[in-house]
Amino acid sequence: MPDDLTKMAEPYRIKMVEPLRVLSREERIQKIKEAGYNTFLLKSEDVYIDLLTDSGTSSDYQWAGMIMGDEAYAGSRNFIHLYEAVKDIFGYNYMVPTHQGRGAERVLFPLLIKKGQYVIGNMHFDTTKAHIEMAGGTAVNMVIKEAEDTENYHPFKGNFDVERMERFIREKGSENIAFILATVTCNSAGGQPVSMENIKEVKRVADKYGIRFFIDAARFAENAYFIKQREKGYENKSIKEIVREMFSYAEGFTMSAKKDALVNIGGMIAIKDDEDLFRKVQNMVVPLEGFVTYGGLAGRDMEAMARGLEEGLSEDYLHWRINQVKYLGDKLREAGIPIQYPTGGHAVFIDGKKFLSHVPQEQFPSQAICVELYIEAGIRGVEVGALLAGRDPVTGKEILPALDFVRLTIPRRVYTNSHMDVVAEAVKRVYARRDSIKGLRFVYEPPILRHFTARLEPVE
């Protein structure tokens, strides 16, 4: 009985509080207008509940380590601790830190991609796709079709469609595939996990055609937790054992450590045993990020990352984390709100096309919902749909993805379920008046990663 009871509440206690500012509805209307109807351009102080990202939270254990930061330019003891943590958890022999995940992509991808090659992923995220294209490649998504059916249950909607991927490789020629990248969990598909069986199948195909296989490891621990909960044969394994097996099938990974490593800033590239690639990475890191033993980070940041990698494997923490996301998702489903089901590891993804079925996808229905959530209750979500997808780099036409989401991203150990209740009520209120909501059009459209800085206005 005590064990069951302890799973009902947060596995932490609040040591410090940060007061939240609540603006009036009239003020929120003015603030979102000034921000060009783009939630990225809102000031943090004008947001009540911030669900823009799950990046950047930490613990007292990590902060204690930050006091012990060794700020030496080279050979910091915090780098040594980070290296040892990576080797222990993932089993990889080489690692270089970067300032965050996109720094890792910026360093690694040009070393792997030749102009005109394809990079196959389950479903690439925005910065990943941008860095592939900047390196002269083309990003191709091969997620299973079940991911596009948001209403039906599938335990691993982040899986690759292996048969379709193999057909693509044969059609294009293996020499035209730069590498395969598995994103775990798969953010763009709704924070959906990838099964161990699917990772092994991807590895089999990669080996068959002599193609390199890497992992985007931002949410590696959440993916391992889902494997433990949903995949036969892993229910009695530890999270660390599952992580070790997952990464044994790849030859390297990039990571935004701001997710499952629980840090405010940081990332890395890790390579299993390819010393030649590691030396090339080192040579690229120095001019782009910083010296090879700090990669754009202070010593205190690397210490927090080392401790966060270890802390993020806690099953008690992961249980609460995943179930807080499920708590919000269940409340929305009970109210008839269309979401990606089942809920994933880090966010609840509202199906924007179904929520605002009268708004054409070219008018960014999910972004319009984000705007209305801010007006309704000061909640900042983020669009993962047509606005984020951008334009086809060849034709310039709008890319209209099958999945068009509002991502309500739950920061780690930041909000209680009382906050989730507020979010659920706000979504329900917006849904009740959905027929009156209008789409959006551009006032300013940047050429790359437009969703970060675009300015929009309502379509009259």
TrEMBL record:
- What Pfam families does the annotation carry? Beta_elim_lyase (PF01212)
Q: Can you state the subunit structure given in the record?
A: Homotetramer.
In terms of PANTHER family, this protein maps to: BETA-ELIMINATING LYASE-LIKE PROTEIN-RELATED, TRYPTOPHANASE
**PTM N6-(pyridoxal phosphate)lysine: at which residues?**
259
**Which cofactors?**
pyridoxal 5'-phosphate
Q: Which Gene3D superfamilies match?
A: Aspartate Aminotransferase, domain 1, Type I PLP-dependent aspartate aminotransferase-like (Major domain)
Q: Which family does it belong to?
A: Belongs to the beta-eliminating lyase family.
MF terms in GO: tryptophanase activity
Which EC number applies?
A: 4.1.99.1
Q: Which InterPro entries match?
A: ArAA_b-elim_lyase/Thr_aldolase, Beta-eliminating_lyase, PyrdxlP-dep_Trfase, PyrdxlP-dep_Trfase_major, PyrdxlP-dep_Trfase_small, TNase
Q: Which organism is it from?
A: Thermosediminibacter oceani (strain ATCC BAA-1034 / DSM 16646 / JW/IW-1228P)
Key words, A-Z: Lyase, Pyridoxal phosphate, Tryptophan catabolism
- Name the pathway: Amino-acid degradation; L-tryptophan degradation via pyruvate pathway; indole and pyruvate from L-tryptophan: step 1/1
The protein's name is: Tryptophanase
What is this organism's lineage? Bacteria, Bacillati, Bacillota, Clostridia, Thermosediminibacterales
Q: Which reaction does it catalyse?
A: L-tryptophan + H2O = indole + pyruvate + NH4(+)
Show where the Aromatic amino acid beta-eliminating lyase/threonine aldolase domain sits: 50-425
